[in-house]
Specification:
CATH superfamily: Formyl transferase, N-terminal domain
Mean pLDDT: 96
CATH architecture: 3-Layer(aba) Sandwich
Number of helices: 5
Bound molecules: 5-O-phosphono-beta-D-ribofuranosylamine
Strand order of the largest sheet: 3-2-1-4-5-6-7-11-12
Order of helices and strands: EHEEHEHEHEEHEEEEE
Radius of gyration: 17 Å
């Protein structure tokens, strides 16, 4: 049997997206293995979700500059021999050298319907704007923050009385479904990025895939 594709996961916080991947692997819904979990925060709760042999962490403050930290992180990630690198709540901006080293197999999940609301406080910003829909995106990572080609999205309605917390809480389980579904495509070799565009089975996608209520990722449509 061919070895399972390997996913390196970058985390900074609680790691619920990592947990979703671990559960999908354990339940046979994702044919992959976790190559390692890597954090810029040695106290990240996410780290405890995997055995000690799979954990790497370092405090960026112990390095002379961002490039030095990124280089150490990149070396550790590369040493785990990943097929894909997935940022699951990794809160430091990855420098260009890191991004170039893993280009085309580096994905991030972001809690907004990109290109709307790059950066932080996405739930509050969607509410302030009066959006009828909110969602999460999985995108290829490029040096510019949250600006890479979007592979797939999940949408949820904004309802009366929503607060940033209720919206975030309702989105999170959908985000987990999205992440699992996208990583399944990725490890199956069906997803790629070329010249800033996402390819599914070798065909250019002109809009992000959309996760439907039955968990299927289907080509989306504009509007
Ligand atoms: C998620 O909402 C993710 O989209 C964002 O940070 C959060 C991480 O959550 N980038 P977790 O650590 O996976 O629970």
């Amino acid at each position: 049997m061919a070895p399972a594709p390997r996913i390196a996961v970058l985390v900074s916080g609680r790691g619920s997206n990592l947990q979703a991947l671990l559960e999908a692997i354990a339940e046979g819904r994702l044919d992959a293995e976790i190559a390692g979990v890597f954090s810029d925060r040695p106290d990240a709760a996410a780290l405890a979700r995997v055995p000690p042999g799979l954990r790497w962490s370092a405090n960026a403050r112990g390095f002379p500059d961002r490039a030095a930290f990124d280089a150490a992180l990149a070396d550790a990630v590369a040493a785990s021999a990943p097929d894909w690198v997935f940022c699951a709540g990794y809160m430091r901006i990855l420098g260009e050298a890191f991004v170039r080293r893993f280009e085309g197999r580096l994905l991030n999940v972001h809690p907004s319907l990109l290109p709307r609301y790059k950066g932080l406080h996405t739930h509050a910003r969607a509410l302030e704007a009066g959006d009828a829909e909110h969602g999460a995106s999985v995108h290829f990572v490029v040096p510019e923050l949250d600006a890479g080609a979007v592979a797939a999205q999940v949408r949820i309605p904004v309802v009366a009385g929503d607060t940033p917390d209720t919206l975030a809480a309702r989105l999170l389980p959908q985000e987990h479904r999205l992440v699992t579904a996208v990583m399944a495509l990725a490890v199956a070799g069906r997803l790629a990025e070329r010249d800033g565009q996402v390819l599914l089975d070798g065909q250019t996608l002109f809009s992000p895939l959309r996760l439907d209520s039955s968990g299927v990722l289907a080509p989306g449509s504009h509007g």
